[in-house]
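Exercise 7. Predict the joint structure of the components listed below.
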Amino acid sequence: MNKKHSQFVAFLIFKLLGIIVVLILFSILGFIIINGVRVINWEFLSKFPGEGMTTGGIFPAIVGTLYLTIGSLLFAFPLGVMSALYTQEYAGKGWIVKTIRMMTNNLASVPSIVFGLFGMSLFVNKLNFGDSLLAGSLTLGLLALPVIIRTTEEALKAVPDTYRAASLALGATKLQTISKVVLPAAMPNIITGLILSIGRVSGETAPILFTVAAYFLPHLPSGVFDQAMALPYHLYVLATSGTDIEASRPMAYGTALVLILIVLTMNLLATFIRRKLEKKRSK
Amino acid sequence: MIETRNINFYYGDFHAIKNISIAIKPNTITAFIGPSGCGKSTFLRLFNRMNDLIENTRLEGECLIDGKNIYEKSTDVDALRKRVGMVFQKPNPFPKTIFENVAYGLRVNDMGDKHFIKQRVEESLQAAALWDEVKDKLQKSAYELSGGQQQRLCIARALAVAPSVILMDEPASALDPISTSKIEELVHELKQHYTIVIVTHNMQQAARVSDNTGFFMHGELVEYSDTKKMFLNPDKESTQNYITGRFG
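Solution:
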Protein backbone atom coordinates (compact mmCIF):
# COMPACT_ATOMS: atom_id res chain seq x y z
CA MET A 1 0.00 0.00 0.00
CA ASN A 2 1.58 3.30 -0.97
CA LYS A 3 1.39 6.41 1.20
CA LYS A 4 -1.47 7.98 -0.76
CA HIS A 5 -3.61 4.92 -0.12
CA SER A 6 -2.77 4.73 3.55
CA GLN A 7 -3.61 8.40 3.91
CA PHE A 8 -6.95 7.79 2.20
CA VAL A 9 -7.76 4.84 4.46
CA ALA A 10 -6.68 6.71 7.59
CA PHE A 11 -8.84 9.73 6.80
CA LEU A 12 -11.76 7.48 5.97
CA ILE A 13 -11.49 5.86 9.39
CA PHE A 14 -11.22 9.25 11.13
CA LYS A 15 -14.25 10.44 9.23
CA LEU A 16 -16.33 7.37 10.05
CA LEU A 17 -15.46 7.55 13.73
CA GLY A 18 -16.27 11.25 13.74
CA ILE A 19 -19.64 10.61 12.16
CA ILE A 20 -20.41 7.83 14.65
CA VAL A 21 -19.68 10.12 17.60
CA VAL A 22 -21.88 12.86 16.19
CA LEU A 23 -24.63 10.32 15.46
CA ILE A 24 -24.59 9.04 19.04
CA LEU A 25 -24.81 12.58 20.35
CA PHE A 26 -27.66 13.47 18.05
CA SER A 27 -29.61 10.30 18.80
CA ILE A 28 -29.46 11.05 22.53
CA LEU A 29 -30.56 14.62 21.92
CA GLY A 30 -33.21 13.52 19.42
CA PHE A 31 -34.57 10.90 21.78
CA ILE A 32 -34.97 13.45 24.56
CA ILE A 33 -36.38 16.11 22.28
CA ILE A 34 -38.97 13.80 20.70
CA ASN A 35 -40.10 12.42 24.05
CA GLY A 36 -39.82 15.66 25.93
CA VAL A 37 -41.28 18.18 23.55
CA ARG A 38 -44.75 16.58 23.88
CA VAL A 39 -45.15 17.56 27.49
CA ILE A 40 -43.57 20.97 27.30
CA ASN A 41 -46.03 23.79 27.35
CA TRP A 42 -46.56 26.90 29.42
CA GLU A 43 -48.28 24.96 32.17
CA PHE A 44 -45.37 22.52 32.45
CA LEU A 45 -42.93 25.39 32.83
CA SER A 46 -44.99 27.53 35.19
CA LYS A 47 -46.85 25.10 37.47
CA PHE A 48 -45.93 23.09 40.52
CA PRO A 49 -46.05 19.29 40.21
CA GLY A 50 -49.44 17.78 40.98
CA GLU A 51 -51.04 14.41 41.77
CA GLY A 52 -47.93 12.56 42.80
CA MET A 53 -45.80 14.16 40.06
CA THR A 54 -47.93 12.78 37.24
CA THR A 55 -49.42 16.14 36.23
CA GLY A 56 -48.59 19.78 36.62
CA GLY A 57 -45.16 21.22 35.95
CA ILE A 58 -41.62 21.63 37.13
CA PHE A 59 -41.51 25.35 37.86
CA PRO A 60 -39.93 25.08 41.33
CA ALA A 61 -37.21 22.76 40.02
CA ILE A 62 -36.33 25.25 37.27
CA VAL A 63 -36.13 28.09 39.75
CA GLY A 64 -34.10 25.94 42.16
CA THR A 65 -31.56 25.01 39.51
CA LEU A 66 -31.16 28.64 38.44
CA TYR A 67 -30.65 29.71 42.06
CA LEU A 68 -28.13 26.93 42.67
CA THR A 69 -26.16 27.59 39.51
CA ILE A 70 -25.96 31.32 40.10
CA GLY A 71 -25.28 30.87 43.82
CA SER A 72 -22.49 28.38 43.28
CA LEU A 73 -20.77 30.53 40.66
CA LEU A 74 -21.09 33.68 42.77
CA PHE A 75 -18.99 31.81 45.26
CA ALA A 76 -16.69 29.83 42.98
CA PHE A 77 -15.95 32.32 40.17
CA PRO A 78 -14.25 35.09 42.16
CA LEU A 79 -12.52 32.59 44.43
CA GLY A 80 -11.33 30.47 41.51
CA VAL A 81 -10.09 33.43 39.48
CA MET A 82 -8.25 34.86 42.48
CA SER A 83 -6.65 31.49 43.29
CA ALA A 84 -5.47 31.18 39.71
CA LEU A 85 -4.11 34.72 39.79
CA TYR A 86 -2.18 33.83 42.90
CA THR A 87 -0.68 30.60 41.59
CA GLN A 88 -0.03 31.92 38.11
CA GLU A 89 1.02 35.53 38.65
CA TYR A 90 2.27 35.85 42.20
CA ALA A 91 3.44 32.61 43.70
CA GLY A 92 6.40 31.86 41.44
CA LYS A 93 7.47 28.31 40.78
CA GLY A 94 8.19 26.85 44.20
CA TRP A 95 7.01 23.55 45.61
CA ILE A 96 4.02 25.16 47.33
CA VAL A 97 2.53 26.15 44.00
CA LYS A 98 3.31 22.77 42.51
CA THR A 99 1.52 21.13 45.42
CA ILE A 100 -1.47 23.45 45.10
CA ARG A 101 -1.67 22.73 41.38
CA MET A 102 -1.47 18.99 41.92
CA MET A 103 -4.20 19.18 44.55
CA THR A 104 -6.38 21.24 42.23
CA ASN A 105 -6.04 18.60 39.53
CA ASN A 106 -6.86 15.87 42.00
CA LEU A 107 -9.85 17.84 43.22
CA ALA A 108 -11.16 18.01 39.65
CA SER A 109 -11.29 14.24 39.45
CA VAL A 110 -12.94 13.58 42.81
CA PRO A 111 -16.35 11.95 42.25
CA SER A 112 -19.18 14.39 42.79
CA ILE A 113 -20.84 12.20 45.42
CA VAL A 114 -17.76 12.77 47.59
CA PHE A 115 -18.30 16.50 47.29
CA GLY A 116 -21.89 15.85 48.30
CA LEU A 117 -20.83 14.00 51.44
CA PHE A 118 -18.27 16.66 52.28
CA GLY A 119 -20.84 19.41 51.79
CA MET A 120 -23.26 17.61 54.04
CA SER A 121 -20.81 17.10 56.86
CA LEU A 122 -19.31 20.61 56.66
CA PHE A 123 -22.04 22.98 55.54
CA VAL A 124 -25.20 21.16 56.55
CA ASN A 125 -24.08 19.70 59.87
CA LYS A 126 -20.92 21.36 61.15
CA LEU A 127 -21.77 24.91 60.12
CA ASN A 128 -25.41 24.23 60.76
CA PHE A 129 -26.73 25.66 57.49
CA GLY A 130 -29.13 22.72 57.28
CA ASP A 131 -30.45 21.46 53.96
CA SER A 132 -30.41 24.81 52.24
CA LEU A 133 -29.67 26.75 49.08
CA LEU A 134 -26.56 28.08 50.82
CA ALA A 135 -25.20 24.61 51.62
CA GLY A 136 -26.07 23.34 48.13
CA SER A 137 -24.55 26.35 46.37
CA LEU A 138 -21.34 26.10 48.37
CA THR A 139 -21.05 22.38 47.67
CA LEU A 140 -21.64 22.88 43.95
CA GLY A 141 -19.21 25.77 44.08
CA LEU A 142 -16.50 23.52 45.47
CA LEU A 143 -17.15 21.19 42.57
CA ALA A 144 -16.79 24.01 40.05
CA LEU A 145 -13.74 25.50 41.72
CA PRO A 146 -11.04 23.25 40.22
CA VAL A 147 -12.50 23.70 36.73
CA ILE A 148 -12.48 27.46 37.10
CA ILE A 149 -8.97 27.51 38.58
CA ARG A 150 -7.55 25.31 35.84
CA THR A 151 -9.11 27.20 32.95
CA THR A 152 -8.21 30.57 34.45
CA GLU A 153 -4.61 29.43 34.88
CA GLU A 154 -4.52 28.34 31.26
CA ALA A 155 -6.08 31.64 30.20
CA LEU A 156 -3.45 33.61 32.13
CA LYS A 157 -0.69 31.46 30.69
CA ALA A 158 -1.93 32.27 27.20
CA VAL A 159 -1.42 36.01 27.77
CA PRO A 160 1.95 36.84 26.18
CA ASP A 161 4.67 37.86 28.65
CA THR A 162 5.48 40.77 26.35
CA TYR A 163 2.28 42.47 27.58
CA ARG A 164 3.42 42.13 31.17
CA ALA A 165 6.91 43.36 30.32
CA ALA A 166 5.54 46.37 28.42
CA SER A 167 3.29 47.33 31.31
CA LEU A 168 5.94 46.94 34.01
CA ALA A 169 8.46 48.83 31.88
CA LEU A 170 6.10 51.81 31.92
CA GLY A 171 6.19 51.93 35.70
CA ALA A 172 2.95 50.08 36.32
CA THR A 173 2.78 47.99 39.48
CA LYS A 174 2.18 44.29 39.29
CA LEU A 175 -1.40 44.73 40.44
CA GLN A 176 -2.04 47.39 37.78
CA THR A 177 -0.48 45.14 35.18
CA ILE A 178 -2.74 42.29 36.17
CA SER A 179 -5.96 44.28 36.44
CA LYS A 180 -5.49 46.51 33.41
CA VAL A 181 -3.66 44.29 30.94
CA VAL A 182 -3.49 40.63 31.89
CA LEU A 183 -7.04 40.04 33.13
CA PRO A 184 -8.78 41.87 30.23
CA ALA A 185 -6.66 39.90 27.76
CA ALA A 186 -7.43 36.62 29.51
CA MET A 187 -11.12 37.32 30.10
CA PRO A 188 -12.54 35.60 26.98
CA ASN A 189 -10.79 32.37 27.94
CA ILE A 190 -11.77 32.75 31.58
CA ILE A 191 -15.39 33.05 30.46
CA THR A 192 -14.95 29.75 28.64
CA GLY A 193 -14.06 28.19 31.97
CA LEU A 194 -17.19 29.72 33.41
CA ILE A 195 -19.23 28.15 30.61
CA LEU A 196 -17.75 24.74 31.33
CA SER A 197 -18.54 25.04 35.01
CA ILE A 198 -22.10 26.22 34.36
CA GLY A 199 -22.64 23.05 32.37
CA ARG A 200 -21.19 20.93 35.12
CA VAL A 201 -22.90 22.65 38.06
CA SER A 202 -26.42 22.80 36.71
CA GLY A 203 -26.47 19.13 35.76
CA GLU A 204 -25.04 17.62 38.94
CA THR A 205 -27.25 15.53 41.21
CA ALA A 206 -24.94 13.97 43.77
CA PRO A 207 -23.67 17.18 45.43
CA ILE A 208 -27.18 18.51 46.01
CA LEU A 209 -28.65 15.20 47.12
CA PHE A 210 -27.72 15.64 50.80
CA THR A 211 -27.30 19.38 50.91
CA VAL A 212 -30.34 21.11 49.46
CA ALA A 213 -32.55 19.06 47.17
CA ALA A 214 -36.13 18.45 48.22
CA TYR A 215 -38.38 15.70 46.87
CA PHE A 216 -41.28 18.08 46.70
CA LEU A 217 -41.96 21.58 48.02
CA PRO A 218 -45.30 23.36 47.70
CA HIS A 219 -43.62 26.78 47.58
CA LEU A 220 -40.49 28.42 46.19
CA PRO A 221 -37.49 28.95 48.46
CA SER A 222 -37.70 32.36 50.10
CA GLY A 223 -34.18 32.65 51.42
CA VAL A 224 -30.72 31.11 51.32
CA PHE A 225 -31.54 28.84 54.27
CA ASP A 226 -34.50 27.24 52.49
CA GLN A 227 -34.47 23.92 50.74
CA ALA A 228 -35.13 23.88 47.02
CA MET A 229 -36.08 21.52 44.27
CA ALA A 230 -33.68 21.18 41.37
CA LEU A 231 -33.98 19.76 37.87
CA PRO A 232 -31.39 16.94 38.01
CA TYR A 233 -32.72 15.66 41.31
CA HIS A 234 -36.31 16.06 40.16
CA LEU A 235 -35.45 13.98 37.11
CA TYR A 236 -34.01 11.31 39.35
CA VAL A 237 -37.13 11.36 41.51
CA LEU A 238 -39.44 11.15 38.50
CA ALA A 239 -37.51 8.25 37.03
CA THR A 240 -37.11 6.19 40.20
CA SER A 241 -39.38 7.04 43.05
CA GLY A 242 -42.61 8.71 42.00
CA THR A 243 -45.93 7.29 43.08
CA ASP A 244 -46.60 6.10 39.54
CA ILE A 245 -43.37 5.89 37.59
CA GLU A 246 -45.00 4.97 34.29
CA ALA A 247 -47.35 7.93 34.48
CA SER A 248 -44.60 10.35 35.37
CA ARG A 249 -42.24 9.14 32.63
CA PRO A 250 -43.29 11.86 30.13
CA MET A 251 -42.67 14.42 32.89
CA ALA A 252 -39.17 13.00 33.24
CA TYR A 253 -38.43 13.48 29.55
CA GLY A 254 -39.80 17.00 29.70
CA THR A 255 -37.57 17.75 32.69
CA ALA A 256 -34.54 16.36 30.88
CA LEU A 257 -35.26 18.56 27.88
CA VAL A 258 -35.70 21.66 30.01
CA LEU A 259 -32.43 20.91 31.82
CA ILE A 260 -30.61 20.57 28.51
CA LEU A 261 -32.19 23.76 27.21
CA ILE A 262 -31.19 25.71 30.31
CA VAL A 263 -27.59 24.53 30.07
CA LEU A 264 -27.60 25.33 26.36
CA THR A 265 -29.02 28.81 26.93
CA MET A 266 -26.48 29.59 29.62
CA ASN A 267 -23.69 28.37 27.35
CA LEU A 268 -24.95 30.49 24.48
CA LEU A 269 -25.19 33.51 26.74
CA ALA A 270 -21.65 32.99 27.98
CA THR A 271 -20.39 32.46 24.42
CA PHE A 272 -22.09 35.69 23.42
CA ILE A 273 -20.35 37.57 26.26
CA ARG A 274 -17.05 35.96 25.30
CA ARG A 275 -17.44 37.01 21.67
CA LYS A 276 -18.27 40.53 22.73
CA LEU A 277 -15.21 40.73 24.96
CA GLU A 278 -13.01 39.35 22.19
CA LYS A 279 -14.32 41.97 19.81
CA LYS A 280 -13.83 44.73 22.33
CA ARG A 281 -10.34 43.48 23.02
CA SER A 282 -9.24 43.49 19.40
CA LYS A 283 -10.81 46.87 18.77
CA MET B 1 23.96 59.85 33.35
CA ILE B 2 24.24 56.08 33.68
CA GLU B 3 27.20 54.48 35.32
CA THR B 4 27.95 50.91 36.25
CA ARG B 5 30.66 49.85 38.63
CA ASN B 6 32.01 46.32 38.43
CA ILE B 7 28.68 44.78 37.56
CA ASN B 8 28.47 41.01 37.59
CA PHE B 9 25.26 39.20 36.75
CA TYR B 10 24.40 35.53 36.95
CA TYR B 11 21.56 33.39 35.61
CA GLY B 12 21.80 30.56 38.12
CA ASP B 13 25.40 29.39 37.69
CA PHE B 14 25.85 31.10 34.35
CA HIS B 15 28.05 34.17 34.60
CA ALA B 16 26.31 36.40 32.04
CA ILE B 17 27.88 39.80 32.75
CA LYS B 18 31.52 39.90 33.77
CA ASN B 19 32.74 42.84 35.75
CA ILE B 20 31.54 45.64 33.50
CA SER B 21 32.10 49.30 34.31
CA ILE B 22 30.78 51.85 31.90
CA ALA B 23 29.67 55.49 31.88
CA ILE B 24 27.01 56.80 29.52
CA LYS B 25 26.61 60.52 29.05
CA PRO B 26 23.22 62.23 28.97
CA ASN B 27 21.67 63.09 25.60
CA THR B 28 23.82 60.67 23.70
CA ILE B 29 23.05 57.53 21.79
CA THR B 30 25.01 54.52 22.87
CA ALA B 31 24.92 51.30 20.89
CA PHE B 32 25.69 47.87 22.30
CA ILE B 33 26.85 45.39 19.68
CA GLY B 34 28.10 41.84 19.83
CA PRO B 35 27.25 38.29 18.83
CA SER B 36 24.10 36.54 20.11
CA GLY B 37 24.32 35.53 23.73
CA CYS B 38 27.13 37.99 24.49
CA GLY B 39 25.14 39.62 27.30
CA LYS B 40 24.33 42.96 25.64
CA SER B 41 20.55 42.64 26.13
CA THR B 42 20.99 41.36 29.67
CA PHE B 43 23.22 44.34 30.41
CA LEU B 44 20.66 46.75 28.94
CA ARG B 45 17.91 45.26 31.05
CA LEU B 46 19.89 45.95 34.20
CA PHE B 47 19.25 49.67 33.75
CA ASN B 48 15.50 49.40 34.38
CA ARG B 49 15.71 46.28 36.50
CA MET B 50 13.74 44.17 34.04
CA ASN B 51 16.02 41.27 34.95
CA ASP B 52 14.30 41.28 38.33
CA LEU B 53 11.44 39.46 36.60
CA ILE B 54 13.62 36.46 35.87
CA GLU B 55 13.93 34.00 38.72
CA ASN B 56 17.15 32.66 40.10
CA THR B 57 19.40 35.54 39.08
CA ARG B 58 22.06 37.36 41.07
CA LEU B 59 23.76 40.71 40.75
CA GLU B 60 26.98 42.14 42.13
CA GLY B 61 28.24 45.67 41.79
CA GLU B 62 26.50 48.98 41.37
CA CYS B 63 24.43 50.60 38.68
CA LEU B 64 24.05 54.32 39.17
CA ILE B 65 21.53 56.48 37.39
CA ASP B 66 21.91 60.18 38.11
CA GLY B 67 24.28 59.29 40.90
CA LYS B 68 22.00 56.89 42.74
CA ASN B 69 22.48 53.14 42.90
CA ILE B 70 19.24 51.72 41.51
CA TYR B 71 19.87 48.37 43.18
CA GLU B 72 19.63 49.77 46.65
CA LYS B 73 16.87 48.33 48.82
CA SER B 74 15.15 51.70 49.03
CA THR B 75 14.74 52.01 45.24
CA ASP B 76 11.18 52.43 44.03
CA VAL B 77 11.36 50.09 41.04
CA ASP B 78 8.11 51.34 39.49
CA ALA B 79 9.32 54.92 39.66
CA LEU B 80 12.66 53.86 38.20
CA ARG B 81 10.94 52.23 35.22
CA LYS B 82 8.91 55.35 34.66
CA ARG B 83 12.18 57.29 34.45
CA VAL B 84 13.94 54.67 32.33
CA GLY B 85 11.63 53.68 29.48
CA MET B 86 12.03 50.65 27.29
CA VAL B 87 11.25 49.63 23.73
CA PHE B 88 11.33 45.91 23.07
CA GLN B 89 12.59 43.75 20.25
CA LYS B 90 9.21 42.80 18.87
CA PRO B 91 6.52 45.49 18.79
CA ASN B 92 4.31 44.68 21.79
CA PRO B 93 1.36 47.06 21.89
CA PHE B 94 -1.40 46.18 24.35
CA PRO B 95 -4.60 44.72 22.89
CA LYS B 96 -6.19 48.14 23.31
CA THR B 97 -6.87 51.13 21.10
CA ILE B 98 -4.04 53.26 19.74
CA PHE B 99 -5.04 56.04 22.12
CA GLU B 100 -5.21 53.77 25.15
CA ASN B 101 -1.80 52.31 24.39
CA VAL B 102 -0.15 55.69 24.68
CA ALA B 103 -2.37 56.79 27.56
CA TYR B 104 -1.63 53.63 29.56
CA GLY B 105 1.57 54.84 31.21
CA LEU B 106 -0.09 58.14 32.10
CA ARG B 107 -3.05 56.38 33.66
CA VAL B 108 -1.09 53.88 35.75
CA ASN B 109 1.20 56.64 37.01
CA ASP B 110 -1.70 58.96 37.75
CA MET B 111 -0.27 61.70 35.56
CA GLY B 112 -2.89 64.34 35.03
CA ASP B 113 -6.53 64.63 34.05
CA LYS B 114 -8.41 63.71 30.90
CA HIS B 115 -7.43 66.88 29.12
CA PHE B 116 -3.76 66.48 29.94
CA ILE B 117 -3.77 62.85 28.84
CA LYS B 118 -5.33 63.74 25.50
CA GLN B 119 -2.75 66.41 24.89
CA ARG B 120 0.12 64.22 26.03
CA VAL B 121 -0.99 61.35 23.78
CA GLU B 122 -0.92 63.67 20.78
CA GLU B 123 2.50 65.09 21.68
CA SER B 124 3.93 61.62 22.16
CA LEU B 125 2.56 60.34 18.87
CA GLN B 126 3.99 63.40 17.17
CA ALA B 127 7.35 62.88 18.79
CA ALA B 128 7.29 59.30 17.56
CA ALA B 129 6.48 60.52 14.02
CA LEU B 130 3.25 58.56 14.01
CA TRP B 131 0.60 61.24 14.58
CA ASP B 132 -0.18 62.00 10.94
CA GLU B 133 -0.70 58.33 10.20
CA VAL B 134 -3.01 57.58 13.12
CA LYS B 135 -4.75 60.83 14.06
CA ASP B 136 -8.00 59.73 12.37
CA LYS B 137 -8.06 56.27 13.92
CA LEU B 138 -7.03 56.73 17.54
CA GLN B 139 -9.93 54.54 18.66
CA LYS B 140 -8.92 51.65 16.40
CA SER B 141 -7.02 48.64 17.68
CA ALA B 142 -3.25 49.01 17.83
CA TYR B 143 -3.06 45.71 16.00
CA GLU B 144 -4.50 47.28 12.85
CA LEU B 145 -1.19 49.09 12.40
CA SER B 146 1.74 47.69 10.43
CA GLY B 147 4.74 46.28 12.31
CA GLY B 148 6.76 49.46 11.84
CA GLN B 149 3.85 51.64 12.99
CA GLN B 150 3.35 49.38 15.99
CA GLN B 151 6.98 49.83 16.98
CA ARG B 152 6.68 53.62 16.69
CA LEU B 153 3.51 53.35 18.79
CA CYS B 154 5.55 51.52 21.42
CA ILE B 155 8.09 54.34 21.28
CA ALA B 156 5.29 56.90 21.70
CA ARG B 157 4.00 54.87 24.64
CA ALA B 158 7.44 54.99 26.25
CA LEU B 159 7.78 58.74 25.58
CA ALA B 160 4.38 59.57 27.08
CA VAL B 161 5.50 59.14 30.70
CA ALA B 162 8.41 61.56 30.11
CA PRO B 163 11.38 59.33 30.85
CA SER B 164 14.93 60.67 30.81
CA VAL B 165 16.45 57.45 29.48
CA ILE B 166 15.12 55.18 26.75
CA LEU B 167 16.43 51.64 26.40
CA MET B 168 15.92 49.98 23.04
CA ASP B 169 16.43 46.26 22.70
CA GLU B 170 16.96 45.58 19.00
CA PRO B 171 13.98 47.81 18.19
CA ALA B 172 14.16 47.31 14.43
CA SER B 173 15.16 43.67 14.16
CA ALA B 174 11.61 42.54 13.36
CA LEU B 175 10.99 45.31 10.81
CA ASP B 176 11.46 45.81 7.08
CA PRO B 177 14.18 48.19 5.79
CA ILE B 178 11.86 51.17 5.28
CA SER B 179 10.39 50.91 8.77
CA THR B 180 13.89 50.42 10.10
CA SER B 181 15.16 53.65 8.56
CA LYS B 182 12.15 55.49 10.00
CA ILE B 183 12.97 54.17 13.46
CA GLU B 184 16.61 55.20 13.02
CA GLU B 185 15.64 58.72 11.99
CA LEU B 186 13.38 58.86 14.99
CA VAL B 187 16.10 57.68 17.36
CA HIS B 188 18.31 60.42 16.01
CA GLU B 189 15.60 63.02 16.64
CA LEU B 190 14.96 61.79 20.17
CA LYS B 191 18.59 62.27 21.16
CA GLN B 192 17.96 65.96 21.85
CA HIS B 193 15.74 65.18 24.80
CA TYR B 194 16.66 61.69 25.92
CA THR B 195 19.60 59.50 26.73
CA ILE B 196 19.28 56.51 24.48
CA VAL B 197 20.89 53.11 24.80
CA ILE B 198 20.25 50.79 21.90
CA VAL B 199 21.13 47.13 21.52
CA THR B 200 21.51 46.05 17.95
CA HIS B 201 22.59 43.12 15.85
CA ASN B 202 23.08 45.37 12.90
CA MET B 203 26.52 46.95 12.74
CA GLN B 204 25.58 49.47 10.08
CA GLN B 205 22.76 50.57 12.33
CA ALA B 206 25.14 51.08 15.23
CA ALA B 207 27.50 53.03 12.96
CA ARG B 208 24.65 55.16 11.60
CA VAL B 209 22.81 56.14 14.76
CA SER B 210 25.15 56.05 17.72
CA ASP B 211 27.67 58.40 19.29
CA ASN B 212 29.38 55.73 21.32
CA THR B 213 29.54 52.00 20.86
CA GLY B 214 30.23 49.16 23.24
CA PHE B 215 31.32 45.79 21.89
CA PHE B 216 30.37 42.80 24.02
CA MET B 217 31.62 39.25 23.86
CA HIS B 218 31.15 36.32 26.27
CA GLY B 219 29.69 38.64 28.89
CA GLU B 220 32.58 41.06 28.78
CA LEU B 221 32.72 44.60 27.50
CA VAL B 222 35.61 44.19 25.09
CA GLU B 223 35.76 47.74 23.87
CA TYR B 224 33.81 50.92 24.48
CA SER B 225 34.57 54.09 22.61
CA ASP B 226 33.46 56.76 20.21
CA THR B 227 31.53 55.10 17.39
CA LYS B 228 33.68 56.57 14.61
CA LYS B 229 36.83 55.34 16.24
CA MET B 230 35.32 51.96 16.96
CA PHE B 231 34.41 51.36 13.34
CA LEU B 232 37.48 52.93 11.73
CA ASN B 233 40.22 52.07 14.10
CA PRO B 234 39.28 49.71 16.93
CA ASP B 235 41.80 48.96 19.64
CA LYS B 236 41.15 45.27 19.91
CA GLU B 237 41.56 42.63 17.28
CA SER B 238 38.33 40.82 18.20
CA THR B 239 36.40 44.06 17.68
CA GLN B 240 38.01 44.47 14.29
CA ASN B 241 37.12 40.87 13.41
CA TYR B 242 33.52 41.26 14.51
CA ILE B 243 32.76 44.52 12.74
CA THR B 244 34.35 43.36 9.53
CA GLY B 245 32.44 40.11 9.65
CA ARG B 246 35.58 37.98 10.03
CA PHE B 247 34.39 36.64 13.27
CA GLY B 248 35.84 33.73 15.21
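Discussion. The two ends of chain A are 52 Å apart (CA to CA).
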